[in-house]
Amino acid sequence: MGEIGASPTGRAKQGLSGAFGPGVSVHDPLLTEAEAAELGVRKAALADLLATSRIVAVHAPALPETHHLIGARELALLPDGAGLVNTARSWLVDEEALVAAVRTGRIDAALDVYDAEPLPAGHPLRGLPNVLLTPHQAAATVECRQALGDSTVDEIVRYVTGRPLRHTVDRTALARVE
Length: 178
Known about the structure:
Elements: E1 2-4, H1 8-17, E2 25-27, H2 33-39, E3 42-43, H3 46-52, E4 55-58, H4 72-77, E5 83-86, H5 95-103, E6 108-111, E7 131-133, H6 142-160, H7 171-174
Parallel strand pairs: 1-2, 1-4, 2-3, 4-5, 5-6, 6-7
C-alpha cells in the first residue's frame, strides 16, 4: 500500500493501513526517517511508491508544488490492476489523465473529490465500471459534527484557562495541513 502525504489525515490512515500487514510506503517530502519509523512505514520516493503499490491513497495538501502531482506519467507507473484512492482534493490528480488511464481498464479509482463538484451527470468517470464515486461528505454525519463541536469547545476552554492546546497550527504545521 502506498500513501502520498503524511498530513494528520494521512497519518490516521497509515495507522489503519497497518491492519493490512507490513509494506506501507509513504511519500512526503516533510516526513523524516525517524517519523516514518515511528509510524511503522517506509519512506519512499514518489516514483518508487507508485511502481510498487497495489493501492495508492492520496492525502497531500493543495500547494502550488502539488498541483497535478499525479498525472499521466505517474499513473503509467502504477502496476496493472492497481487502484488509486483520492479523498483529499482534485487539485492533486490530473483528472483528464486519470480518465484516460482508467478507461484502459488497467487501473481502478475510488474518488470523492472532482474538478467540478458535484460531478456533472454526463462526466466520463460516471460510466466507468472500474471507478467508485462518492460525494465528498465523509464528515457530514451527526457524530462527526458533534465531535468537531466538542473539540472546538475543548480548545476554547483550554485557551481561556491557560492550558496547552491540543490542535495548534503554526507555520510548520500549516504547510502539512490538508
